[in-house]
Amino acid sequence: MKDREKLLKQLNDAFANCDTVFLNNSVTDDIIWEIVGEKKIAGRKDFENSLDRMSHGGPTKIIVNEILSSGNRSVVEGIVEFFVEPGKKRKYAFCDVYIFSETEENKFNELRTYVAQLKHKKK
């Protein structure tokens, strides 16, 4: 499982740094990425297009709090920051469920993302 944990950290670093090459090389052709409650991205071409859009305003920082793995499934929980306009960031809690291919080593074929904006508490 240590290899899987290392790969998941690399994947999150790649998302934070908009490393589209690493991310594209980490998915199967039949990838499905569901951002729950928002949209579903199906197939390598849609995945690549989403990554391209992300590189023009994607995350600025990802903090991984916990990684859990069992079999071909892994869950990553953390905090992600995005620029929503110049000079203004928003933080979101996220939980990603990765389902890894059983035939293509170290590639995932499904990703479900749950995300909720963190609100600042007023004092």
UniProtKB/TrEMBL annotation:
The record's annotation in SUPFAM superfamilies points to:
NTF2-like
From which domain of life does this come? Bacteria
Write down the Gene3D superfamilies for this protein, in alphabetical order.
Answer: 3.10.450.50
Q: What is this protein called?
A: SnoaL-like domain-containing protein
